[in-house]
């Protein structure tokens, strides 16, 4: 196993990226290329924002002089946006500085031509801007309200199903696929459960590695997450207002906490049957090409008697992507499939209002009308030809860091 870098409170790696090396050389090459493409996006962030600012300046300066004279603060606000972008760039540099050797067992090697930073696509830049907003949701005081609506119902349900006064929570394993910047998984580990976050995107992985392993001092860092939003600002200063992070010390987990993050595509990485007591998905199931594949994977990896807790909308990520499989099912259809698979739905709320990386000063704000459910894989399902006992409360921990296979898909 290769070098370990990011470390948890026990010196345990927060990140490991296990692969079975049975893929062709070309696959490794493609992934390395992808790795550098995302590094380049982080590097080119400032350039991208400056281009936008320069365009805004040009547009303003093209107005008739008497119009410009009516707007004495516009250029100074654009200059301020520019400064904020410089500051954000410093954080982007710190993130990538800590990303080169972050995986326990994989090194991405040198880029083909180190002098060549390729221009980033709008798609990658949008992903990076969303990742910056994810810092607000997961690691700032500003995001607290949003976390209360999205993460709290999941955490409370876990505590209800696996109460610490009735079972040894240090033996209860919880998996969070699509963990984003890791706050939900971190909170669950803080309560004493074994918790593993899984994430696919290098944007998220680089950023969560940074915040989890390199940011100890509470509110010591600043980001300007709203400078990318040129529309729907009531005040110019709304666009340049800062957030500080992290609102808690991510290194403050109890010494015996069992918390890890694993990189890779959920359906490729998690193949070991009957491994987890709980799988919790938050704003995740709509990231699937085929959501039934997620249902199938969750069913397979849950121990008999294990639970799947879900909260989120159905904003299908691949809906508008040409050449991508995207099966856009209604909740009604997904529910039917879940029940037909054999899950017992134990809790169901069809209307939980939440936000997602909300800018609470914006003139345009989205509310998600989420579904929340708890679905149990019955304890008496037949596994390997024998009926399993309902043992979820005395469960043994899964092989959380056992070798996992990562797929051939590139990460985004
Ligand atoms: C909408 S975000 C939600 C993040 C987090 N759960 C939250 O509530 O803030 C969905 C996340 O799932 C990740 N993701 C998408 N497809 C994935 C896959 N196949 N395996 C693992 N993660 C995936 C994305 O990179 C993204 O970070």
TrEMBL record:
Compositional bias per record (Basic and acidic residues), positions renumbered to this chain: 403-412
A molecular function (GO) term: carnosine N-methyltransferase activity
Top-rank EC class of the record's enzyme: transferase
Keyword Cytoplasm listed: yes
A Gene Ontology cellular-component term: nucleus
Keywords: Cytoplasm, Methyltransferase, Nucleus, S-adenosyl-L-methionine, Transferase
BP GO terms, sorted: carnosine metabolic process; methylation
Region (Disordered): 1-20, 387-412
Described function: N-methyltransferase that catalyzes the formation of anserine (beta-alanyl-N(Pi)-methyl-L-histidine) from carnosine. Anserine, a methylated derivative of carnosine (beta-alanyl-L-histidine), is an abundant constituent of vertebrate skeletal muscles. Also methylates other L-histidine-containing di- and tripeptides such as Gly-Gly-His, Gly-His and homocarnosine (GABA-His).
Name under which the protein is recorded: Carnosine N-methyltransferase
Organism lineage: Eukaryota, Metazoa, Chordata, Craniata, Vertebrata
């Amino acid at each position: 196993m290769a070098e370990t870098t990011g470390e948890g409170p026990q010196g345990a790696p927060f990140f490991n990226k296990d692969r079975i090396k049975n893929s062709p050389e070309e696959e490794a090459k493609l992934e390395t290329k992808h790795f550098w493409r995302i590094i380049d996006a982080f590097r080119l962030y400032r350039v991208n924002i400056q281009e936008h600012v320069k365009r805004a300046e040009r547009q303003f300066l093209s107005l008739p002089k008497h119009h410009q004279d009516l707007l004495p603060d516009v250029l100074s606000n654009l200059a301020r946006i520019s400064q904020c972008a410089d500051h954000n760039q410093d954080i982007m540099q710190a993130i990538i500085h800590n990303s080169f050797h972050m995986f326990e067992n994989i090194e991405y090697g040198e880029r083909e031509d180190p002098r060549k930073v390729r221009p980033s696509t709008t798609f990658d830049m949008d992903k990076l801007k969303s990742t910056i907003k994810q810092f607000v949701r997961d690691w700032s005081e500003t995001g607290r309200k949003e976390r209360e609506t999205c993460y709290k119902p999941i955490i409370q349900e876990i505590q209800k199903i696996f109460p610490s006064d009735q079972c040894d929570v240090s033996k209860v394993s919880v998996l969070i696929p699509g963990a984003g910047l890791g706050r939900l998984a971190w909170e669950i580990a803080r309560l004493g459960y074994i918790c593993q976050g899984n994430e696919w995107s290098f944007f998220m992985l680089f950023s969560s590695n940074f915040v989890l392993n390199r940011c100890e001092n509470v509110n010591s860092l600043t980001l300007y997450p709203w400078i990318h939003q040129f529309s729907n600002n009531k005040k110019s200063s709304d666009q340049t207002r800062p957030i500080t992070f992290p609102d808690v010390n991510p290194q403050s987990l109890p010494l015996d906490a069992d918390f890890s993050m694993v990189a890779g595509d959920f359906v490729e990485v998690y193949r070991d049957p009957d491994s987890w007591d709980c799988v919790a998905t938050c704003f995740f199931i709509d990231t699937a090409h085929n959501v039934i594949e997620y249902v199938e994977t969750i069913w397979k990896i849950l121990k008999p008697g294990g639970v799947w807790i879900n909260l989120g909308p159905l904003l299908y990520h691949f809906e508008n992507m040409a050449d991508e499989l995207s099966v856009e099912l209604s909740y009604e259809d997904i529910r039917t499939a879940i029940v037909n698979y054999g899950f017992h739905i134990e809790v169901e709320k069809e209307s939980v209002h939440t936000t997602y990386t909300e800018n609470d000063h914006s003139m345009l704000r989205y509310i998600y009308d989420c579904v929340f459910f708890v679905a149990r894989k019955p304890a008496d399902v037949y596994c390997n030809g024998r009926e399993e006992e309902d043992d979820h409360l005395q469960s043994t921990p899964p092989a959380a860091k056992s070798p996992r296979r990562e797929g051939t898909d590139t990460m985004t």
